[in-house]
Amino acid sequence: MVFAIDASAYVEAQEGAKSLKFQTEKQQANFELGVSLMVHSWNTLDTAVVNGWGGPQSAEKRDWISSIVIDLFDEKLVDIDMIEETLLNAMIDEFDVHVEDDSSLAIADKILEVYKQCFDESYDEIHAIYDNWKASQENRSLRNATHIHVGEDPDNPDTPDEDEYDDDSEADNNVPQLTEDFVMDDATPEPQGPIVDEDGFELVQKKGKKRY
């Protein structure tokens, strides 16, 4: 089934708000996760990263693209054209790739949808996509491992030949590790008893910051 993309779609800050940035840590963290997932799902960009069209820092450049898209939401209004233009310009500047299909528009539309979901505090779809992303990375790592041939150094048989490692495995290691602290439901830690030092004095424990 093909879904039409609203080329006039936008999100706007609520009255009195200075930007579209979320005020709660949980909403903002899930939004940033969602944007990163959408950027990573862009096949055109993934092809550029895997083939190193942006040089040895290609993976880092992809992460940078995620960050500049997130920064757009420091404004009071963001529309689909702003996001798409940011994606297209980044592809030209960082990878020397001119995207001629509508894939960038589709990614921009998905990013706006992620924002709306986080505004409604609805994270199920984002978490499901994240789980699929992790599974795909594990499968890719397993495939790469089957192509790795470890040669023996005649002077030191226990030392692997580093030149034999597949280049794709290095690209996988550059994939950002997305924290799961905000993905899990809130949990209340079990109470702990007082800690007493060797002189019999009770130690005061600092309270940790609550994670959302």
UniProtKB/TrEMBL annotation:
This is Pre-rRNA-processing protein TSR2. Signal peptide: none annotated. Residues 153-171 have a biased composition (Acidic residues). Keywords: rRNA processing. Residues 147-212 are annotated as: Disordered. Belongs to the TSR2 family. GO terms for biological process: rRNA processing. Transmembrane segments: none annotated. InterPro entries: Pre-rRNA_process_TSR2 (IPR019398).
